[in-house]
Amino acid sequence: MAPVKTWLVTGSAGFIGSHLVEHLLRAGQNVVSLDNFATGHRANLREVEQAVGPEAWRRHRFIEASIVDAGACREACRHVDIVLHQAALGSVPRSIADPVPTHQTNVTGFVNMLVAARDAEVQRFVYASSSSIYGDDATLPKVEPITGEPLSPYAASKQANELYADVFARCYGMQTVGMRYFNVFGARQDPEGAYAAVIPRWIRALLTSAPVEVNGDGETSRDFCYIANVVQANLLAALTEEPHALNQAYNIAVGENTSLNRLLEIVASLLGVQAAPVYRPFRPGDVRHSLADISQARKLLGYRPTHSLTSGLREALSWYINRFAGEPALQR
């Protein structure tokens, strides 16, 4: 990856953000990163530091702040060439339980970042959108132009992100690219709390003999996308020289969907354990099926997923085992 640029990664202590920081530092780039540890973890940054080594880590400058702080956004964008904006307050259920913090971070914080990037004259602004913006539209696979009504405040916030990015491109000539992530998974994904993603939560439960809880009947399906695919997509979006690729939002996924019941079978098989799922009520705001058409990202960005669900799980498994295997077993 050449020439050397200065990149800003927001949400750098989070799951996706920490992988972007690691990849950029390994590639010899200069990185500024920002996080307030609302959902990210210092341990993720320590893990990146250990992975890249002291020489590469010296090319990293960390700012502890929230994107709700407009001044912090301005400071973070100074002398930056490319922004990879990952900071957000995730989770559909969290947004339904308490919508105001979701709006403050995901909408107000997003506009703060756009303004700061505009004023700093950054070359490109790549941002995390979400498959949740497809809402109640039943079309499968999901294609970028067809979105339904949002089913949660989180989905509405991501739809607002895309609208604001489009407006800033029109009004100020900014170059923006949105990444509509579909159920990303991999090392450093948080298993903690009520809003944890399903894969780390289940792996932790299976390794510690805790109940494996499934929302609904298990036939809900998702397009699970390994973190390496997401890193690839962000870098392609950041560096593309194809003008038609800019100022759009893309599905970032694998293009295959898997039911929760099948996912549990795969995870249990890779771990060599038996799973006895406990079925819970469906969660409010969840869509029934999710499957991405990734042809636009293939065509305009050159996106080619390198990992399937199973190969991604195999690659990440050792991290999960190291992370959870030492925890005490819980009784079912």
Question: Would you summarize the structure shown here?
Answer:
With 332 residues, the chain is of the alpha/beta class. The chain is 42% helix and 16% strand.
Topology:
Layout: E1 6-10, H1 15-26, E2 30-35, H2 42-52, H3 54-57, E3 60-64, H4 70-77, E4 82-85, H5 92-97, H6 99-119, E5 124-130, H7 153-172, E6 176-181, E7 184-185, H8 198-207, E8 212-215, E9 221-222, E10 225-226, H9 227-239, E11 248-252, E12 258-259, H10 260-271, E13 277-280, H11 295-301, H12 309-324
Parallel strand pairs: 1-2, 1-4, 2-3, 4-5, 5-6, 6-11, 7-10, 8-13
Antiparallel strand pairs: 9-12
Helix pairs in contact: 1-2, 1-9, 4-6, 6-7, 8-10, 10-12
Structure description:
This protein has a domain at 6-185 and 226-252: Rossmann fold (3-Layer(aba) Sandwich). The model has no long low-confidence stretch (mean pLDDT 94). The protein is built from twelve helices and 13 strands. It has helices at residues 15-26, 42-52, 54-57, 70-77, 92-97, 99-119, 153-172, 198-207, 227-239, 260-271, 295-301, 309-324; strands at residues 6-10, 30-35, 60-64, 82-85, 124-130, 176-181, 184-185, 212-215, 221-222, 225-226, 248-252, 258-259, 277-280. It is an alpha/beta fold. Strand 1 (6-10), helix 1 (15-26) and strand 2 form a beta-alpha-beta unit. Helix content is 42%, strand content 16%. Helix 1 runs parallel beside helix 2 (42-52).
